[in-house]
Design a protein that fits this description.
It is a single chain. By secondary structure, the chain is α/β, with parallel strands linked by helices. The chain has helices spanning 15-25, 47-59, 74-77, 98-119, 133-142, 157-171, 209-213, 216-220, 222-228, 230-238, 244-259, 307-331, and strands spanning 5-10, 36-41, 65-71, 83-86, 125-128, 152-154, 178-179, 182-184, 192-194, 199-202, 205-208, 267-272, 285-293, 296-299. Helix 2 links the parallel strand 2 and strand 3. The chain is globular, with a radius of gyration of 19 Å.
Length: 333
């Protein structure tokens, strides 16, 4: 057996974590031969709830779960980490301005970034889930200067999975038969779900998405808005935000980061934009198509971008620049 890896989940008493922790602990993410030390961080008032989560994890009697550490202290949570999954953030409350939300989250992710810098391994892989995920990820990365920017990513895999699923439903095939959808930009309603490079396996034959779907108006209209607004639609229906699907997307993201993407396939991740070849402004966390090998992502280059796509990519980049500029003011750097 390999040495155990230390995996931190923040917001560990929350509903996303409740759907996530079992999958991590039983080997669905880092492999069936990889023992896990689970570190669970939440705020002090949530510690009694977290105790219940620990009891349930113990009661699962999972062979790979070597140790569980539940804490409300960053210096305990961030020590010697191999993986940090930052789920916890300040949720948007009714009547709250986006600027106020950014300010509250800058404080959280500045602190957690500094804790990563001080206590975690320099090889730590950091996934930010808590919204606004792209900008929270950028703040954490800026607050951890000794950890490479390559090690930070934010979750747009949920949007990617939503887009893949919508195409699959439309074509009447399993989602596994749809590959190479792309989410560009922000994990927000300005994101751009792009299927110009997507292929669908129809009865053993791979077809471009536009040929398989045979409805350009839908692909350029309702498909995009459905994916962009899906989170809000779930909240309206459930009165709670996406948890099961978010947890599944976190697992998919981390599994690909750990084990690599399949040959000739790419996925979507929010990553550091500096040095990209798509004209996206530098110093953002922006979702790109990536391939992953040896725990390292590479942006998929050379994809043709038409005027329709470019306008949508630019719009989401503008939102991210505005978010970044506001957040950096609060950061004081």
């Amino acid at each position: 057996m390999a040495e155990p890896i230390r995996v931190l989940v923040t917001g560990a008493a929350g509903q996303i974590a409740y759907s996530l922790l079992f999958s991590i602990a039983k080997g669905d993410v880092f492999g069936k031969e990889q023992p896990i030390i689970l570190v669970l961080l939440d705020i002090t008032p949530m510690m009694p709830v977290l105790d219940g989560v620990v009891m349930e994890l113990q009661d699962c009697a999972l062979p790979l779960l070597r140790k569980i550490i539940a804490t409300d202290k960053e210096e305990v949570a961030f020590t010697d980490l191999d993986v940090a999954i930052l789920v916890g953030s300040m949720p948007r409350r009714e009547g709250m301005e986006r600027k106020d939300l950014l300010k509250a989250n800058v404080a959280i992710f500045k602190s957690q970034g500094a804790a990563l810098d001080k206590y975690a391994k320099k090889t730590v892989k950091v996934l930010v889930v808590g919204n606004p995920a792209n900008t929270n990820c950028l703040i954490a990365a800026k607050s951890a200067p000794s950890i490479p920017k390559q090690n930070f990513s934010c979750l747009t895999r949920l949007d990617h999975n939503r887009a893949r699923s919508q195409v699959a439903i439309r074509c009447g095939v399993p989602a596994t038969q749809v590959k190479n959808v792309i989410i560009w930009g922000n994990h927000s309603s300005t994101q751009y779900p792009d299927v110009h490079h997507c292929v669908v396996n129809m009865s053993g034959c791979e077809q471009p998405c536009f040929e398989a779907v045979k409805d350009d108006a839908w692909l350029k209209g309702d498909f995009i808005s459905t994916v962009q607004q899906r989170g809000a639609a779930v909240i309206k229906a459930r009165k709670l935000s996406s948890a099961m699907s978010a947890a599944k997307a976190i697992c998919d993201h981390m599994r690909d980061l750990w084990s690599g993407t399949p040959q000739d396939e790419f996925t979507s991740m929010g990553i550091y934009s500096t040095g990209n070849n798509y004209g996206v402004p530098e110093d953002l966390i922006y979702s790109f198509p990536v391939q992953i090998k040896d725990k390292t992502w590479t942006i998929v280059d050379g994809l043709a971008i038409n005027a329709f796509s470019q306008a949508k990519m630019d719009a989401t980049a503008k939102e991210l620049k505005d978010e970044r500029d506001t957040a950096v003011e609060f950061l004081g750097v």
